[in-house]
Structures are given as structure tokens and as C-alpha cells.
């Protein structure tokens, strides 16, 4: 049997290759990919804009994915074969102080992640350590489950922010992360759940997910100091600073967006005088993954409406060009091997 994979040899250069199905080694599984999401990090890999420390060319991208276990390596329970699953992307060592404390996304053994330094899921098959799997229900929607990686990042933000019933909450950005955050935060019974984004198409979807208020960034300037909790998901040049302005004195801010060098800094005077608690999120720990999978399994989280485009592997170039292309009608783009 043959297996195909997209390989990005260097920025702007890719090819679709065919070869033998990859064999899982000891402690590993081979998963037949059902769907793989494309995010801005994947676009950065293709364009050559990702920090060199966080990518290793040539690479098969794809860190957001779902599939079915097809084969297991030595030492792995054969009962996993046939299970629908997702898997953590970080190849955490499990031995350092951060891993032992549960912060597997902060592993100090060095950065190593499926789809960036290891072959990812823009392929028919992906091989991963069995210890990273999060098996799903037998009837799980694998198309929707491909979004459980960004959902785990959002879960990390929600868990760290500790929302309480009746609080005023704002979500800055209505992209994939923002809309998933709305779903999880709505479950905490907020007194107000506002979404701030200039795209009316996206804010309309946010309302369907439980947002009570939706407005453009310029309209939100009248709400400075209003919110108990602000969850930033946009990663735009000004949103870290503007999110802190939205929080009330003594409020909490969680930054989940990936910011580029030169982004507007947070005013330290405002930060100290307002006594804000500011946290950041980089990836997702194993605990956050478990949280997201439970929310998905129980129906609390439904990523399916976020998918707007699906492409076969042969149309990878067309698919990746849509991501970050500026079309407000583009939501999550999937590759379907």
C-alpha cells in the first residue's frame, strides 16, 4: 500500500510525494488521517515566516488533525486499532520539571512538535507516540474533531482564567480560537459575553455560539474598564494592549494569540495601577487536551460550524493560500486525504 504526503522542501516550494505506508516504531501508532486543519502557523511555514527555531525543513505540515488508528508498534495495546482519535502535537519529554508538574507544553527538553519538526498530518497517514493519543467516541465526527488542537489551546486559556458565573467576559477576535472560546465560556453562565471583531460575518456566528454582545474594535473603546475577564485570541499588533484596557481594575487578561515582533506593548503603568492579572498561553498541556476532548464528547463544544472549506491533498497550494488571505468568509480550511 502507498501513502501520500505534502512535503514543503523550503519556503514556497512543495510537492506531493508517494511512498510506502510509514511503519510505527516501538511505542508508536500509525493513524489514517481523516481531516487536517490549516492554520496561520502552517501558512507561515509555507511562506517562510515562522521562526527558524520552530520549524525544520523539509517538513510535512499538519498539527491539527483527526483520524483512526490503523497499526500499532511494539509495546502498544492492539485494542487501539480501529479507534478514532486525536493526539497532542508537542513531543514533551515527560521527565523535566515542567512536564512532571503537568505543564507539558512548557517542556524544557527543547521544542519538538508534529507538523513542524516531525512529519505531520497533511498526508494519508501520520505516526505519533501512543502516549499522546486522546481516543474519541466510536461515533465521533472526525471532520469536527480536526479542530480539537485549537480547542485545546482555548481550553488552556479558559482553565487558567477561571471564569465564574455572572461575570462580564470579552473575547477579542472571532477567528477559530475566538469562536471556540465563546462556546467554552458560554458554559460558565457569564452575565455578559462580548465578542470584539471587525468582521460582521464572524460576530454573527459568535452570537449563535452564545455571545450576548458583538461589536467592532472601535466600538469597544467605550467599554474600557468594563470586563472581569478578557480572553485575547487575535494575535494582532495592538490586541494585547487593547485587551488590557478592556479589563476592569483587578481584572484578568489571557493572551492566546501569537504575536509578531513589534506588536504594541502593554503599558506597565496601567498594568500596575489597575492591578491586572495577565497570563499567556503557548500551546496546550495534556490536561487542556483532556478538557477539550471531554467538552467535545459531551456536546459542549461543536467545532463543525467553523469549517468553511475542504480540499484534497492535491489542492494543498490552493488551500493554504486561503488561510490569512483576508476573505472574511473563510473560516477553518481542512485538507481531507
Identify the notable features of this structure and list them briefly.
seven-stranded mixed sheet, single chain, alpha/beta, 15 strands, 2 domains, 337 residues, six-stranded parallel sheet
Counting DSSP E segments of at least 2 residues, the number of strands comes to: 15
The description of the largest β-sheet is:
7 strands, mixed
C-alpha Rg (nearest Å) = 20 Å
Shape assignment:
globular
List the uncertain runs. Answer: none
Overall tally of domains? 2
Can you say what the CATH homologous superfamily of the largest domain is?
A: Medium-chain alcohol dehydrogenases, catalytic domain
CATH class wording of the largest domain: Alpha Beta
Report the mean per-residue pLDDT as an integer.
96
CATH architecture of the largest domain: Alpha-Beta Complex
Quickly give the structural class: alpha/beta
Element-level helix/strand string? EEEHEEHEEHHEHEHEHEHEHEHEHE
What is the end-to-end distance? 15 Å
The amount of helix comes to 25-40%
CATH topology of the largest domain: Quinone Oxidoreductase, Chain A, domain 1
**How many distinct helices?**
11
Report strand %.
25-35%
